[in-house]
Automatic annotation (TrEMBL):
One Gene Ontology term from the biological process aspect of the record: negative regulation of glycolytic process
GO MF, one example: fructose-2,6-bisphosphate 2-phosphatase activity
Organism annotation: Lactobacillus gigeriorum DSM 23908 = CRBIP 24.85
SUPFAM superfamilies for this protein: Phosphoglycerate mutase-like
Residue positions binding substrate: R9, H10, G11, E12, T13, M14, F15, N16, R59
Name of the protein: Phosphoglycerate mutase
Length: 226
């Protein structure tokens, strides 16, 4: 049995608003973030879900409970938290200024000063961007592509195991992780180049097939489009 997966990006957080690097570190949802999520929750209120899941980070947990409370046609019990669906880990850069971080990574990648992450990735490719992030990290803890790819495969395998009797589920995750999933599993991505970063509160829809294959079929859908 195939399982339809609604991947929701958490709402805007304080670190999003303050332009800080936010991977495994956490910060609370903003008022704007909550308001945006309420629009997504309203748009999904009449969609039946067999279950709801989230990353184990608080901004995702708060988001999934907002989705759960607004849904009028689903009976959801305790929310299971899945650490495999955490955001990408940025190591020592967690909580730092985003522009300064990207500039440091750009220099490590050998392209000079650049604070626009999209331009950096367009120049060197996503794999080299991740490698440069790990290299620039003084403790070399940031996830590179091999580590991230391994975690994505584990995440999909875990999801397949726990949803084998479920037709439709909602799962709250994070922008960079959802984007990286889409690069790997969306047929409109060539797997080499960057794609648009998903909006806070957006919905990306995937299909998890019984043979373990996962594919993204809709990406970064806003509440108005649902």
């Amino acid at each position: 049995m195939a399982t339809e997966v609604y991947l929701v990006r958490h709402g805007e957080t304080m670190f999003n608003q303050l332009n800080k690097v936010q991977g495994w570190c956490d910060s609370p949802l903003t008022v704007k973030g909550i308001d945006d999520l309420k629009r997504t929750a309203t748009a999904l209120a009449q969609v039946h879900f067999d279950n709801m899941y989230s990353s184990d980070l608080k901004r995702a947990i708060d988001t999934v409970h907002l989705m759960k409370d607004a849904n009028q046609v689903s009976t959801i019990g305790k929310i299971r938290k899945l650490p495999e669906f955490r955001e990408v880990f940025f190591g020592s850069f967690e909580g730092d200024d985003i522009d300064q971080t990207w500039d440091q990574i750009a220099q490590t990648a050998g392209i000079g000063h650049e604070t626009n992450v999209q331009k950096i990735i367009n120049r060197v490719g996503l794999r080299e961007f991740r490698a440069a992030t790990k290299k620039a990290d003084p403790r070399h803890l940031a996830e590179d592509m091999p580590e991230l790819d391994k975690r994505m495969v584990k995440a999909i395998a875990t999801l397949q195991e726990i949803t084998k009797n479920e037709k439709r589920v909602l799962l709250v995750s994070h922008g960079d992780f959802i984007k990286t999933l889409a690069i790997k599993y969306w047929n409109q991505s060539d797997g080499q180049h960057d794609i648009i970063f998903p909006d806070n509160g957006s919905v990306t829809r995937g299909i998890l097939h019984s043979n373990g294959k996962f594919e993204i079929v809709d990406y970064n859908q806003k509440a108005i489009d649902l």
